[in-house]
Amino acid sequence: MSVRLHALALAAACCAAPALAANSAFSNFTPLASSAGPTADEAVPLTLSSALFSQRSIADRTTQLAAAQFNSGSWDMITLNETGADKGRYLFTVFETAQAGIQRTDLWNNNATTTIWSSPAAAPALNSHVAFDASYWTPWGSFVTAEESWGNQPQPYGRLFELKNPLAATGNANAQLVHANSVARVSHEGVQWDKAGNMYFIDELNGGSLYRYTPKASFDSVLAGQADYFAGGTNAVLRVGDGNTDNAVGASSWVAFTDSDGLALAGAITIVDPNGISAVDGRNTTNLASFKGTNYQRPEDLQMQIGPNGEERLYIATTSTHEVYILDIATGEMKVFANQNTIDLATGQAVGAALRSPDNLAMDADGNIYIVEDRNGGVDNDVWFAKDLNKDGDLLDAGEGLGRWVSNGTPGSEMTGLYFDPFNANRAWLNIQHPSSGNDRLIEISAVPEPGSYALMLGGLALMGGIVRRRAKR
């Protein structure tokens, strides 16, 4: 990272959260009227909605293969090392393939990209790992990923893994990748935590549910490094109403189907996989009457948001019904946040079929929600900005709705993993996954702040300079 970027990051870290949010320019755009056609250059795949936005390719699969890096492609979700030593330095992404892996990009070292772990074999080998999709930094400073695969038994997949040394790992021999067997097996994608330390996850299928894992150990002891978060915990499924109505909204409850060690309660389903490992089958257990969870249609990504009064809201994208739901963590109320009836900010009419297959979710420094479609690059693959002016968790007020923010022109691909830099309010990344060319790309998007935001940042730097000088005189 340049000296200037280090200084800006330092200033941002020392200013209040509203100051950081005031520097974000990503919400200053004119909604695109239509999706992009095919791009002439895959290194610049995006049609952007503002002249203040720019893009650049900072990693690509062809380059990695030429450097003799294992790289099976289908780059998926993205995160940074959000805490700890050198926080903000490394981008992590994963390979959603039959031979999965984990890739790390060093933003402070010319975007040097390395595969830090890869599965020893491709499916269906017993030592294989498939379809890594989740990519998240834990509150205690490790990295988690999980397999988007769980179906007919017996098979070994549907697992969640913790990479305990993500900054040190440089290959399979050194990587401490541990299967978190206390988490029930499902087809994983989105993972999020609340302030109390509960972890939320989904089962991606038509009829999939939302789940919560509560660690047996106190969350404070986990954060202090005194306990293992995944050493045991209670798995529960969300039930809205009586659980028998698909896509239900309204009051909800959590139905536990394991004990505090992660072992199946009486009547829940335990399987033994081909590797001889006993595990709780989250999908089939929560279709039983005793543990019935509410079915949604291909729930995929999750995003936690803190509202203006400190309320915690969990957003859930459901691909098959073209919806985004919102769950109030404190009250348990489930409601629809966005769907095809939501106003298109470009037309003033319902967005209709222009919004299709919402897959990934992301949040910028101002707390704005972005919705990434699982659609066709060069045809109808867009990212939508959700304009919630009063941050009340709906898009029903005057002037609110969805605006097409960027559009992808790479044939055969989809955008995935949109992630906003928590240390630089005007930087974000997304992946161009499985293009027809086979050359997956990691794209960095930047925004130019308004002049007043520069003044705020310079004021922060001046403040820091004054603090340093005063300390030097002591």
Keywords:
474 residues, mainly beta, 2 domains, 5-stranded antiparallel sheet, 6 helices, disordered N terminus
Protein architecture, described:
The protein has 474 residues and is mostly beta strands. It has 2 domains: 1-19 and 458-474, no CATH class; 24-448, Neuraminidase, CATH 2.120.10. It contains 6 helices and 30 strands. The strands form 8 sheets. A 5-stranded antiparallel β-sheet has the order 1-27-26-25-24, with no helix packed on it. The chain has a 5-stranded antiparallel β-sheet with strand order 11-12-14-15-16, with no helix packed on it. The longest helix has 23 residues, at 451-473. The chain starts with a helix and ends with a helix.
How would you sum up the major sheet?
5 strands, antiparallel
CATH superfamily of the largest domain: TolB, C-terminal domain
Radius of gyration using CA atoms only = 22 Å
Low-confidence stretches: 1-22, 455-474
Number of strands: 30
Looking at the structure, the CATH topology of the largest domain is Neuraminidase
Give the CA-CA distance, first to last residue: 31 Å
Look at the helices and sheets and give the structural class: mainly beta
